[in-house]
């Protein structure tokens, strides 16, 4: 007979089996790639050279070897700064520092090894020019530093789309109830805003009905930004205008954080000249937030948190006419005089216009 203890024990065993023997599932992410060739001083290919690619922020590395033509490719790289170490027998080691990897893009690093021993190392600090040679797409890449440094109104991420060629803001925008994230509707390449395909961490990020961005990420959470304006890869066939890929931050081996607050006050506003009040109505706009990222387990697990909030108070002012004491008592006789005066003015204006045209 099965009793309560047997059922509980069976549940615990099943839970342990699921926890320890569940298949691996990779988190959704949009990656970058490092490609290139390794040659000797004469230009001949160096085969079987060991290429070690290391994330400078997270300490995660992978090793690959060049093929018979000296070509190598490092795939599935989380956007960030990398260093690449190349070693081959009979040659000095080559170390490239500060190599940027951007979401949805390929970074090319061609290496020419010098004759010598492996113990000798040639270190290059400056990054090579970003040139894609493995695809025909045309796009714009921005790193997290560039995204944070660019002046953006209200820190609205979708404002970056206006930096692209062929982008024009729609004369009308969705209301706040339909668009709580505040994303802008921008036409690109002659296509309506609904032709833009937004992606975040490898997933679609657009409303299928309204054609607008679903999650408008805070500026401090963006690790990389890539906008492909033409010649998309086949997996982006659903886009009509452009493809915008965003990779969010995931922390690193060092603790990093930020905090900000922007405040707009009525103390600096001018009085509306069309209204009679001598003072400016109380009005303010406040935007604030913070971010924090760091290691949970060095080189293995990381965390990142960010928050952004906006609070605003938008009053209005208007000129109103209060009734006189006579009007309050019910005496409205002076209105007849006012109406007759306005009627006479209108007749005079009409007569003047007809006289001029005649």
Give a brief outline of the structure.
The chain is of the alpha+beta class and 358 residues long. 15% of the residues lie in helices and 34% in strands.
What is the helix/strand order? HEEEEEEEEEEHEEEEEEEEEHH
Estimated radius of gyration = 32 Å
Distance between the termini: 112 Å
What shape does the CA trace take? Answer: elongated
**What is the CATH-assigned architecture of the largest domain?**
Beta Complex
Would you write up a description of this structure?
The protein is α+β, with helices and mostly antiparallel strands and 358 residues long. It folds into three domains: 93 residues, Immunoglobulin-like (Sandwich), CATH 2.60.40; 111 residues, Ferric Hydroxamate Uptake Protein, Chain A, domain 1, CATH 2.170.130.10; 58 residues, no CATH class. Helix content is 15%, strand content 34%. The chain is built from four helices and 19 strands. The strands form five sheets. It has a five-stranded mixed sheet, with no helix packed on it. The protein has a five-stranded mixed sheet with strand order 10-15-16-13-14. Strands 1, 4, 7 and 8 form a four-stranded mixed sheet that branches. It starts with a helix and ends with a helix. The relative contact order is 0.10.
């Amino acid at each position: 007979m099965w009793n309560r203890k047997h059922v509980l024990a069976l549940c615990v065993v099943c839970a342990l089996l699921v926890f320890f023997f569940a298949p691996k599932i990779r988190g959704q992410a949009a990656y970058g790639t490092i490609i290139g060739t390794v040659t000797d001083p004469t230009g001949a290919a160096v085969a079987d050279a060991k290429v070690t690619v290391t994330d400078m922020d997270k300490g995660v590395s992978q090793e690959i070897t060049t093929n018979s033509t000296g070509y190598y490719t490092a795939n599935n790289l989380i956007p960030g700064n990398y260093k690449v170490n190349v070693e081959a027998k009979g040659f000095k080691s080559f170390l490239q520092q500060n190599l940027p990897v951007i979401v949805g893009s390929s970074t090319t690093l061609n290496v020419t090894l010098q004759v010598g021993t492996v113990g000798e190392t040639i270190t290059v600090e400056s990054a090579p020019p970003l040139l894609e040679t493995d695809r025909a797409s045309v796009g714009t890449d921005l790193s997290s530093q560039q995204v944070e440094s660019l002046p953006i109104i209200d820190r609205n991420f979708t404002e970056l789309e206006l930096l692209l060629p062929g982008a024009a803001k729609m004369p009308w925008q969705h209301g706040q109830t339909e668009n709580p994230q505040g994303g802008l509707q921008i036409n690109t390449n002659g296509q309506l805003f609904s032709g833009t395909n937004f992606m975040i961490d490898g997933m679609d990020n657009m409303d299928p009905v309204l054609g607008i961005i679903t999650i408008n990420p805070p500026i401090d959470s963006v690790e990389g930004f890539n906008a492909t304006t033409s010649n998309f890869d086949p997996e982006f066939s659903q886009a009509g205008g452009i493809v915008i890929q965003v990779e969010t931050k995931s922390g690193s081996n060092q603790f990093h954080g930020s905090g900000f607050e922007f405040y707009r006050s009525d103390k600096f506003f001018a009085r509306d000249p069309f209204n009679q009040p001598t003072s400016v109505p109380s009005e303010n706009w406040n935007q604030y937030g913070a971010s924090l990222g760091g290691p949970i387990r060095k080189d293995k697990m990381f965390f990142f948190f960010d928050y952004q909030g906006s609070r605003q108070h938008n009053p209005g002012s208007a000129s109103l006419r209060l009734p006189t004491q006579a009007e309050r008592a019910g005496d409205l006789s002076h209105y007849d005089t006012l109406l007759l005066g306005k009627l006479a003015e209108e007749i005079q204006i009409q007569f003047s216009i007809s006289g001029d045209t005649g």
